[in-house]
Amino acid sequence: MSRETDQSSATAREGRRRFSSSAVLGVAVLGSSMAFVDATIVNISVPSISRDFAGSPLSSVSWVLNAYNVVFAAFLIGGGQLADVLGRRRVFSAALVLFALASALCALAPTLDVLILARVVQAGGAAMLIPSSLAIALDSHATHERMRAITLWTAAAAAAAGIGPPLGGVLITASGWRLVFLVNIPIGLLALALGRRVLPESRSTGDGRLPDLFGEVVLAGAIAALVLAIVKGQEWGWGSARIIGALLTALGLGGYFLVRASRRPTSLIDPSLLRIRSFTLANLTTVIMASGFFAYTLCNVLFLTGVWRYSILQAGLALTPGPFTAMAVAAWASRLIERVGYRAVSVAGGLIWAGGMAYFASGLGATPDFLGQWLPGIIVLGVGAGLAFPAVSGAAVMSVPGSRFALTSAMNSVARQIGAALGVAALVAIVGNPTPAQALQAFENGWIFAGLCFLAGAAMSAAVVVRAPSQVGLQAPRPLPVRGAGAGVQPVPQIAQAAPAFTEDQFD
């Protein structure tokens, strides 16, 4: 390293020391909390949004969730790359403004189409906000303090996601679903004001090339076309020209994206990693398990409000035990992984998760019974999520030789968001628009679908061979978000992976 480079690095580190690392972390967490709360609070709003827009069918309202999921998945890595090149504080501030403005547009949306468009813009803000927030937090801490910063940032993200359902219930009960989006505006403005005072600027020491934004648009188009085909399959007819056209569009755009990715170093994915069997299997498992997770989180909201006739507030409170159970289990699961490895924990988690879905599908009746029926089931689901998600994500990250934790964790986050979009779409196709007499059976079918996803995920994760951390002298990784994280009652592992992880050399 040259003397000039040494002096530049020393000056940068000295500049960072002028700021309190705790204050920087607090502002970074405050800004990102909007996206994490939004990831869980919007699901509880779906019944209210549907009623407000003249009883719009679930197939249409579901795009309020999936427009966000698709765009977030496609632009997450690009958002992090943009922050590295243009400056993390600058991108963080721009993302706060964009997210707050989009939230205002969501709250004022006169039609469902405008609301969906606003969610697209909001997802673009979140895709920049999450990775820049984490990068700022890590960059402000010395190397030996970064694990603590990651832990605190992740815990705050999980807590923000956990309070989403009850907070949404309170806000909707007090004023309506529009308040759910308006609450982001004062938080965003406060984070922006504080950020101008305490956040340092930093950039990556890489080559400074911008991300392949066009490739990310292509990926978003491919996912959206596939989701459209799944959501509209029953309405348009599975063999109709429109469905076949949507599927061919998804296939064509997906193929073009992979070809483009193989030729561009700044692409969203590294195709060479897909040739690593365990990495590919772990990410496919992530897609499948995330599909089941996001499907049942929406299914739970619709069941509680549609069959048990819970109010939005009651439904939000009923959903809350899930993420907090997952939070407690995930902390223990990371230590268990060190002893028995990723495969054993992910298989066990998938089977427990599937068992929870089997219990819901066979044990819940039309008569409300929170303590006797609902609470035991939602706790089992939390245990399954708390075991499976960190194990599968850890296996994806650790299956790649070397220290490419940033890229592998980010690609796993993209896989999770793709699963989110597909899971919501599948749930919509399965449940449809049932009559009151058909509703219970429709939701049971949704839970069965989710359970099958978890069984398939458990079977696939059994084939993922990654050495336990204790065998290679490593601590079990705690991958950081996606979501994103996000929809329904998201357990800690899901929320804690909405942004890519970063290696320490990116900040020195």
Brief descriptors of the model:
508 residues, mainly alpha, Growth Hormone, Chain: A, 21 helices, 75% helix, globular, disordered N terminus, disordered C terminus
Distance between the termini: 13 Å
Give a count of the beta strands, DSSP E runs of length 2 or more: 0
Helical run tally: 21
- Decide which structural class fits the backbone: mainly alpha
Task: Write down the domain tally.
Answer: 2
- The CATH homologous superfamily of the largest domain is termed MFS general substrate transporter like domains
Characterize the main sheet: none
What letter string, H or E per element, gives the SSE order?
Answer: HHHHHHHHHHHHHHHHHHHHH
According to CATH, what is the topology of the largest domain? Growth Hormone, Chain: A
The coarse overall form would be globular
- Unreliable segments (pLDDT under 50, ≥5 consecutive)? 1-17, 472-508
Q: Return Rg in Å.
A: 21 Å
Oligomer: single chain
CATH top level class name of the largest domain: Mainly Alpha
Helix content: over 70%
The whole-number mean of residue pLDDT values reads: 84
CATH architecture assignment of the largest domain: Up-down Bundle
Tell me what portion of residues adopts beta-strand conformation: under 5%
Sum this structure up briefly.
The protein is an all-alpha fold and 508 residues long. Helix content is 75%, strand content 0%.
